[in-house]
Write a structure and sequence with these properties.
This protein is an alpha+beta fold. The protein folds into four domains: 186 residues, tt1808, chain A (Alpha-Beta Complex), CATH 3.90.1570; 154 residues; 332 residues, 3-Layer(aba) Sandwich (Rossmann fold), CATH 3.40.50; 147 residues, no CATH class. It has 40 helices and 34 strands. The strands form nine sheets. The chain has a nine-stranded mixed sheet with strand order 15-14-11-16-17-19-18-20-21, with helices on both faces. Strands 1-4-5-6-7-8 form a six-stranded mixed sheet. Strands 23-31-27-29 form a four-stranded antiparallel sheet, covered by helices on one side. Helix 12 runs antiparallel to helix 19 and helix 35 crosses helix 38.
């Protein structure tokens, strides 16, 4: 195959000459598509460097070009003629090619629509429609619509253009193997005109407008769910919310599965579009469901006591309307093309809502836990793949299928099954490669031969699924969807013929029963919670306790699972009530009263692992440095062997979620000394997470896990951090534990007002001047100085007793009578969002007046979040909000230390980081961690200590003066001068601090980024 443009251009010109010489024959009606593909289209893409005929890539599970040879029945086509991938990701196509014969018009609505639909359903931005004589590049970013399909052409070429070097270069540098591997398609799509569309009446997007597959299908599913729920409730008013949610979900699952079977041609006849031909649409649906249950088995078509009952009443008009939309030949959805993991991602979001039914109405609402979390966030496929490859993939490497059959892999918070699908896909790929590399080792019925290559049989794929895959989820609908997704994956490569052959040979249903593999239950709470407790039946079902020993007896008797992976829920335990909190406090070593739910999943997962079993989670990274993660850090570092920690900082791994994730991989084996890999991901702009981790990872050891937090730095840096910790006393002790958060404005203590409001209040009541205080917010606090703020604080006096209030019922009434104009203004503008009936209660909860005295003292102030040292000194009596903290001391020595490079470097390794701390990331300066900063105290009996102290104080005094002059500078000349002076003073202060802590030259290089 050509590997350069010049070689490709020479080869393509020869192919053009051949076509030109026989053009009359090739464009005749006798010349068929299969011939055009063999004679020209295959060769065209071989010229572009693709292994179209698989002369090099023999393993059918690891081929970059998937070729379909014209399996068409009526108007139905199984899938696109060519799907192009780039190793090692053989799952996700990069682009599609739809082939036609040269006879006739290629530029038709049907041809464009069909081609675009392949790309849109697989989420590829571009697709190609070609008969070799023509080469059209189509935009697949828009929701397919046959009426607007012809508007989606981007570029068009005729075969003569291939012989033009400049025009052929446009094709070559976009679609050649070399270019696609380098990201050409993504770069090209990024500069295309952004899709836009105006919202139409009753629709999310206009016909033919831009809408991603997941958004579009989710919107349709939501609409179908609402329609069905109302129809079911109207006909069956006795259904409660739970039953209504269940029957609606099962109906939609059946319809989706039927459409999948149709599009894959496993079912040769169209099903859904014929509902209503022999009776009502609903009766036909139930009849087909019963027939398919006998063929397929599985939870989807299993008879349901409500849904399949003769007494179940359905509005047939509503139901048939949904069937018509789903079965339309011009529907944008091609269920054969939609990747199963994308379908799972859609369902994950779909499952975030439930049907709530009352006697008079039906509505769909977000689940409470989803509402609190701000939505459902599906694990990206590249994360799933990385975790699976580095746990299951590592464990099965080098093993035979017989050995692998003994292994058990689980996700104990499986949701819609993304990780289970990832495991299953990896196992199928491994077995396929094994048998193609070792054809003589395939047992009877393990493989089938097609096109000279070996494919796993349906029976073998069933065995792998039942033997190896296990999951748990507390949500029954999630369990159903997880099973559905696995069934779809099982049948992905099957055909009408292969399914029929399986039934003839083995006399069994196509789908295995997964009720013992994917189960509904609470992974964290065992049946022992019921001992001595009296629960209402509904409450007990909601809790859904489960014992692993009862659900998976053989596995647990054998020591547990071999791998546990997943993405556990991020839910504050407070939302689960005191019963849950009391339960976990007595049973989990990782318990903390402020812990997130995922903490307990870490412990539970390791508890059900075999000795030596592998573990892989993606979770919040907060446990690595937060107070609530202390017990979990202790648990992990003493009871497991850490393999890899991949920290994403503040990167948006989960779109729309303010969650800062980490991938954590370990082995269930305690070791005295840890040696592991750590990678801090700086950007999501990579093609392969594995390659990115390999490029930037660091080898760390136990020293990175020492102390209050996990520093996750190399040994030499850990040694320096340990030296700093031992160099002085903790800040909390140094300042007598006087570190205070600012006022919670707008609630109990005070209200922020503008300068105009300040003037207004003083005019109305001159006495109110004593209540108005100078004010700043956290963002006003800068390095050494506080920026001038145009806001003020009106401070409500606090600390009254009933006697002080005289005849008033509460302090607020007293304030109303004493400062009527001020109070009236506050009621009208400042606190109108508060529930007034609670005012009497919360004014009684004001802090003592002594709290406010601290603001009047000279103090060091710093913000809650900062990306650089921002410790300032204030002696003007500034008040500040709760986004800033104060230390009520007049200590220039301490101020200089806190603003130094050394202490900021220390903080970056010990505090929670929002983003990459070394590249503009922000630190959360929480008191619990700030109080541990080591401060070298002054030893008055040691001249050198006194000398350094005095020198640092002088430098800080000069810095404060320079900062004031910089803030007052009017000209560029003065600004530049004082900026340079501040920089010089910063360097001098840093040098004195290095001396205070006894740093060597090599250690200084580490602090300043020039050393390891």
């Amino acid at each position: 195959m050509p590997t350069t443009f010049d070689a490709a251009f020479i080869a393509i010109k020869k192919l053009v000459d051949v076509y030109r010489a026989g053009q009359a024959h090739y464009t005749s009606s006798k010349y068929q598509e299969t011939e055009a593909r063999t004679d020209f289209i295959d060769k065209f893409f071989k010229v572009l460097g693709w292994d179209v005929d698989h002369s090099e890539q023999k393993n059918p599970y690891q081929q970059e070009v998937k070729v379909e040879r014209g399996m068409v029945i009526g108007k139905a086509q199984r899938r696109a003629d060519y799907a192009f991938h780039v190793a090692p990701n053989f799952r996700d196509p990069r682009f599609f090619v739809e082939a036609k014969k040269p006879h006739g018009t290629i530029e038709s609505s049907d041809n464009y629509f069909q081609t675009i639909r392949y790309g849109w359903n697989c989420q590829t931005p571009l697709a190609i429609l070609t008969d070799f004589q023509h080469f059209h590049i189509l935009d697949c970013r828009y929701k397919p619509n046959i009426e607007s399909a012809l508007q989606r052409g981007i570029e068009k070429f005729a075969f003569e253009d291939y012989a033009d070097a400049e025009k052929f270069a446009r094709i070559y540098y976009l679609f050649s193997h070399e270019s696609v591997s380098a990201g050409s398609l993504e770069k090209y799509a990024a500069v295309l005109k952004k899709p836009r569309g105006k919202k139409g009446p009753g629709t999310l997007f206009p016909t033919g407008g831009f809408q991603t597959l997941d958004d579009a299908f989710l919107a349709d599913l939501d609409d179908y769910r609402t329609t069905l729920a109302r129809a079911f409730k109207n006909g069956n008013p006795e259904l409660d919310s739970e039953a209504l949610t269940e029957v609606t979900q099962r109906t939609l699952d059946r319809l989706v599965f039927m459409r999948f079977l149709e599009d894959k041609l496993i079912e040769p006849e169209r099903l859904v579009e014929r509902f209503g031909d022999t009776g009502t649409a609903w009766d036909d649906f139930v009849a087909v469901s019963r027939r398919l249950d006998g063929i397929y088995n599985g939870i989807v078509f299993k008879p349901h006591q409500i849904l399949d009952a003769d007494t179940f009443c359905v509005d047939d008009t509503a139901f048939s309307g949904i069937c018509e939309k789903l079965s339309d030949q011009n529907s944008p959805y091609d269920f054969d093309s939609i990747p199963i993991h994308i379908l799972g991602a859609i369902y994950e979001r779909f499952l975030g809502k439930v049907i709530v039914a009352t006697d008079k109405r039906v509505k769909v609402e977000e689940k409470p836990e989803v509402r609190k979390a701000g939505g459902v966030y599906y694990t990206p496929e590249y994360i799933v793949r990385y975790i699976v490859e580095n746990t299951v993939g590592k464990l099965i490497a080098g093993k035979t299928p017989k050995q692998i059959a003994e292994l058990r892999f689980a996700d104990i918070a499986c949701g819609s099954g993304s990780f289970l699908l990832g495991v299953y896909d990896t196992l199928l790929e491994y077995h396929g490669k094994y048998y193609n590399d070792n054809p003589g080792k395939a047992g009877k019925g393990d493989v089938v031969k097609r096109d000279g290559r070996l494919y796993l049989s349906l029976r073998k794929k069933r065995d792998i699924l039942v033997n190896n895959i296990y999951g748990v989820d507390i949500d029954a609908q999630a369990v159903e969807v997880a099973q559905l997704s696995l069934y779809l994956k099982l049948l992905k490569e099957e055909t009408t013929a292969s399914a029929h052959e399986h039934q003839l040979e083995f006399h069994e249903t196509l789908l295995p029963t997964l009720t013992k593999n994917i189960v509904c239950g609470n992974s964290l709470v065992g049946m022992d919670i019921l001992e001595g407790q009296l629960f209402e039946a509904k409450e007990e079902r909601k809790l859904n306790p489960m014992d692993f020993a009862l659900k998976f007896p053989d596995i647990m008797k054998a020591g547990g699972f071999d791998v546990v992976i997943g993405n556990p829920p991020y839910v504050r335990q407070e939302s689960l009530g005191d019963l849950f909190k009391n339960y976990v406090s007595n049973r989990y070593a990782t318990y903390n009263n402020a812990a997130d739910l995922y903490v307990y999943f870490y412990e539970r997962a390791n508890a059900i692992l075999k000795a030596g079993g592998w573990f892989g989670f993606i979770s919040s990274n907060k446990f690595m440095k937060s107070r609530y993660g202390e017990n979990l850090r202790q648990y992990i570092s003493t009871r497991t062997r850490i393999l890899k920690i991949i920290d994403f900082g503040e990167l948006p791994v989960f779109q729309g979620a303010a969650t800062f994730p980490v991938i954590f991989l370990s082995e269930n084996r305690a070791v005295k000394r840890q040696n592991f890999t750590f990678a801090a991901i700086k950007s999501l702009d990579f093609k392969s997470l594995s390659n990115e981790v390999y490029r930037i990872d660091k080898k760390l050891d136990s020293a990175a896990l020492d102390g209050l937090n996990w520093t996750l730095v190399p040994a030499i840096q850990a040694k320096l951090l340990k030296k700093l910790k031992n160099a002085g006393v903790e800040l909390g002790e140094y300042v007598n534990h006087q570190i205070y958060r600012g006022i919670i404005t707008g609630l109990h203590e005070a209200f922020v007002i503008s300068d105009a409001t300040r003037s207004f209040l003083i005019q109305k009541d001159a006495r109110s001047a004593q209540l108005i205080k100078p004010f700043c917010v956290g963002d006003d606090v800068r390095n050494y100085i506080v920026r001038q703020s145009e806001q003020y604080l009106i401070l409500i006096p606090s600390g009254w007793t009933t006697a002080n209030c005289k005849n008033a019922k509460n302090p607020w009434e007293w304030f109303l009578s004493t400062y009527p104009a001020v109070a009236a203004h506050l009621l009208q503008f400042e606190i109108k969002a508060r529930n007034r009936q609670d005012q009497g209660q919360y004014w009684w909860e004001l802090r003592p007046c002594v709290y406010y005295d601290f603001f009047l003292k000279p103090k060091i102030v710093y913000p809650e979040i900062a990306k650089e040292p921002r410790f300032a000194f204030d002696s003007s009596g500034l008040y500040h909000n709760n986004k800033a903290f104060m230390i009520p001391v007049s200590d220039y020595y301490l101020l200089g230390i806190l603003n130094s490079k050394l202490i900021w470097s220390y903080l970056k390794r010990n505090l929670s980081v929002l983003g990459d701390a070394d590249n503009g990331g922000r630190l959360e300066l929480r008191t619990i961690h700030m109080a541990n900063i080591p401060i070298v105290p002054v030893n008055r009996s040691t001249p050198i200590s006194v000398e350094r102290h005095d020198k640092l104080v002088r430098l800080v005094d000069q810095m404060l003066d320079a900062k004031k002059q910089l803030a007052a500078a009017k000209s560029d000349k003065d600004t530049n001068y004082f900026e340079n002076k501040c920089q010089s003073l910063d360097r001098q202060i840093d040098q004195v601090v290095y001396e205070l802590y006894g740093l060597t030259e090599d250690e200084i290089k580490i602090v300043e980024g020039g050393g390891e």
